[in-house]
Amino acid sequence: MSQWSQVQQLEIKFLEQVDQFYDDNFPMEIRHLLAQWIESQDWEAASNNEAMATILLQNLLIQVDEQLDRVSQEKNLLLIHNLKRIRKLLQGKYHGNPMHIAVIISNCLREERRILAAASMPVQGPLEKSLQNSVVSERQRNVEHKVSAIKNSAQMTDQDVKYLEDLQEEFDFRYKTIQSLEQSDKNSALIKQEMLALQAMLNTLDYKRKEVLSKIGRVIHEIDMLMSNMLTEELLDWKRRQQIACIGGPLHGGLDQLQNCFTLLAESLFQVRRQLEKLDELLTRLTYDGDPIPVQRPQLLEKVNFLLYNLFRNSFVVERQPCMPTHPQRPMVLKTLIQFTVKLRLLIKLPELNYQIRVKATIDNNRRFVLCGTHVKAMNMDESANGSLAVEFRHLQPKEMKSSAGSKGNEGPHMVTEELHSISFETQVCLYGLTINLETSSLPVVMISNVSQLPNAWASIIWYNLSTNDPQNLSFFNNPPAATLSQLLEVLSWQFSSYVGRGLNSEQLNMLAEKLMGQQVSYSDYQLSWAKFCKEHLPGKSFTFWVWLEAILDLIKKHILPLWIDGYVMGFVSKEKERILLKDKTPGTFLLRFSESNLGGITFTWVDQLENGEVTFHSVEPYNKGRLAALPFADILRDYKVIMADNVPENPLKYLYPDIPKDKAFGKHYSCQPNEVSKPSDGGVKGYVPSVFIPVSKILNDSTDPHSPSDLLPMSPSVYAVLREHLSPTAIETAVRCELSHR
């Protein structure tokens, strides 16, 4: 079943979440019509590879054209209209930046997987629940409402300033007219009456000046309060959501809404600044005793400039954290001399700033590392599909400097993977007479010199971003805090949903909890230390919990991904629980679980019944990535044979737990049909029957322990059928037993 088919079967509350991240950037119609094709492409790799992204965009447009041809034949006018519009939209938006659509589609697919994983959970995790707090949503709506009201107030004040300007021009004209008269004419009754009218007009001018200054003051106060409270909280919430998304959590939306708020506030402040400049202009033409402009204007202008400085400083954000293209799901882990990408955005989108802001990237201040490559670039509105003012560094490489003694710095495994660094960015904005220096930094990154350090480095990134919302605590691992186990388990499920397409259910998480803390009943408030997660060996083992889990992720990704996504790998189940599940099942029922003693190993256990009714269990020695690279796991399940004493080899695996026929579960993943008989002329060395390795175990009468699955005989079911035409079962068994006796 395709991922999209699974999504369509979700409950309405989950479908509403799916609906939120499909828009004109990637329309849902395309996701629906091209579901199979979209899921078969590697969008994650393309998101950091321009050549690959260009090809995928071209192929996407070709797929849309094919759909257009199909619906044209069906004369579906509405769908024809929508597809033409969507094709034009995709072509226009992404022609100059194909990697952006790769990022969008990759994120959408990942978010679908996360929602599917969440739907399989009995309750929403504590972290995700906190991110989707209704109070936060209400605050977002309030911020947007207040920003809109402030913009309207600033525009209304513009009209008041214009009225004041017109009133003063009329006063100037009438006053100058009187001044131009002869002295004798000034004593006339008519002129005296005009003078009284001018005095009344001056009083009105004074009132209007005070009124305009008061309104400007109120607008400035409202902006100040909004920036100090709700907008700051919104920005901090977005940054926290970004942290969580970086370690596999829900996608962090809301940056476009923040950009809209920041831009409207900046426009309002510049509008107020122009109003104050206009008042200064009016002041030079007319002033009087008690004039409020020279008293209030300097203070208001100073406050406006102060707010603009703060608004610009807060608007300079890292939109996409540093990430190596080779490991798109492991952001903030950087390998020396390997390129990484990072994207910044200025949330104040003003056309005057396009290509006017040059951003410089640096790393730390300890001079241990330097950045090679293009580290100065101009922000522009052309690289982003939504026209935001952004810059993306795509060719930066961290390089470790040699020490004064000529050797590299300390590269011990713990020092490297727990040592945090920061990529810093600085620029300068010059606009309307203001010069503002801006600085921002990435979330802490971990530098590695060898890819073998990647798992522990990623564990550091997980622990940091799970445990703190401080964006720059580079000394965090001097004394790392404990983490709540319930939150950690939620993050571990995200590792599976984001990396291998399917998260963990409550039973699987319970098994992980028991492995981390023993047989405790409740783990909702249990605090787990960093050492127990990543540094201390598991009881009786030579590896840590995290190394064990990371090896399983790697195994799934490289060797059993389709089986995992289909939900046929129970995986995390203890030997004790395994027997409880199987004991009452039909003989031949089996389940798949990850080995607890072998790194990156998977085994299967089946239930059998002796003639006396006794229930027995058999587990094969775990298969590791070396064996699975030689033979697909689905084929192993299909072809697996057991040789019992005095019996012909047979496959004991009949039903996948609880009662799914084996071929129904795994049939679509077999590499070929089991009944295909290869002929000598079909391939291989002339005169020989091509051989295929099949797994065989031997179980003796006096032992329930299976033989090692390393006994892979060069015999396929088809070859066995051919041998049966010439040899008796006894002769075949004798040959097999002779072979086994020499192993």
TrEMBL record:
<dbReference type="GO" id="GO:0003677">
    <property type="term" value="F:DNA binding"/>
</dbReference>
<dbReference type="GO" id="GO:0042981">
    <property type="term" value="P:regulation of apoptotic process"/>
</dbReference>
<comment type="similarity">
    <text>Belongs to the transcription factor STAT family.</text>
</comment>
<dbReference type="InterPro" id="IPR000980">
    <property type="entry name" value="SH2"/>
</dbReference>
<dbReference type="InterPro" id="IPR013800">
    <property type="entry name" value="STAT_TF_alpha"/>
</dbReference>
<keyword id="KW-0175">Coiled coil</keyword>
<dbReference type="GO" id="GO:0060333">
    <property type="term" value="P:type II interferon-mediated signaling pathway"/>
</dbReference>
<dbReference type="InterPro" id="IPR001217">
    <property type="entry name" value="STAT"/>
</dbReference>
<keyword id="KW-0727">SH2 domain</keyword>
<dbReference type="InterPro" id="IPR013801">
    <property type="entry name" value="STAT_TF_DNA-bd"/>
</dbReference>
<dbReference type="InterPro" id="IPR008967">
    <property type="entry name" value="p53-like_TF_DNA-bd_sf"/>
</dbReference>
<dbReference type="InterPro" id="IPR012345">
    <property type="entry name" value="STAT_TF_DNA-bd_N"/>
</dbReference>
<dbReference type="Pfam" id="PF01017">
    <property type="entry name" value="STAT_alpha"/>
</dbReference>
<dbReference type="GO" id="GO:0000981">
    <property type="term" value="F:DNA-binding transcription factor activity, RNA polymerase II-specific"/>
</dbReference>
<keyword id="KW-0238">DNA-binding</keyword>
<dbReference type="InterPro" id="IPR013799">
    <property type="entry name" value="STAT_TF_prot_interaction"/>
</dbReference>
<protein>
    <recommendedName>
        <fullName>Signal transducer and activator of transcription</fullName>
    </recommendedName>
</protein>
<dbReference type="InterPro" id="IPR036860">
    <property type="entry name" value="SH2_dom_sf"/>
</dbReference>
<dbReference type="InterPro" id="IPR035856">
    <property type="entry name" value="STAT4_SH2"/>
</dbReference>
<dbReference type="Pfam" id="PF00017">
    <property type="entry name" value="SH2"/>
</dbReference>
<dbReference type="GO" id="GO:0060337">
    <property type="term" value="P:type I interferon-mediated signaling pathway"/>
</dbReference>
<dbReference type="Pfam" id="PF21354">
    <property type="entry name" value="STAT_linker"/>
</dbReference>
<dbReference type="Pfam" id="PF02865">
    <property type="entry name" value="STAT_int"/>
</dbReference>
<keyword id="KW-0804">Transcription</keyword>
<dbReference type="GO" id="GO:0051607">
    <property type="term" value="P:defense response to virus"/>
</dbReference>
<feature type="domain" description="SH2">
    <location>
        <begin position="564"/>
        <end position="666"/>
    </location>
</feature>
<keyword id="KW-1017">Isopeptide bond</keyword>
<keyword id="KW-0007">Acetylation</keyword>
<dbReference type="InterPro" id="IPR015988">
    <property type="entry name" value="STAT_TF_CC"/>
</dbReference>
<keyword id="KW-0597">Phosphoprotein</keyword>
<keyword id="KW-0963">Cytoplasm</keyword>
<dbReference type="Pfam" id="PF02864">
    <property type="entry name" value="STAT_bind"/>
</dbReference>
<dbReference type="GO" id="GO:0005654">
    <property type="term" value="C:nucleoplasm"/>
</dbReference>
<keyword id="KW-0488">Methylation</keyword>
<dbReference type="GO" id="GO:0007259">
    <property type="term" value="P:cell surface receptor signaling pathway via JAK-STAT"/>
</dbReference>
<dbReference type="GO" id="GO:0005737">
    <property type="term" value="C:cytoplasm"/>
</dbReference>
<keyword id="KW-0539">Nucleus</keyword>
<keyword id="KW-0805">Transcription regulation</keyword>
<dbReference type="InterPro" id="IPR048988">
    <property type="entry name" value="STAT_linker"/>
</dbReference>
<dbReference type="InterPro" id="IPR046991">
    <property type="entry name" value="STAT4_CC"/>
</dbReference>
<keyword id="KW-0013">ADP-ribosylation</keyword>
<keyword id="KW-0832">Ubl conjugation</keyword>
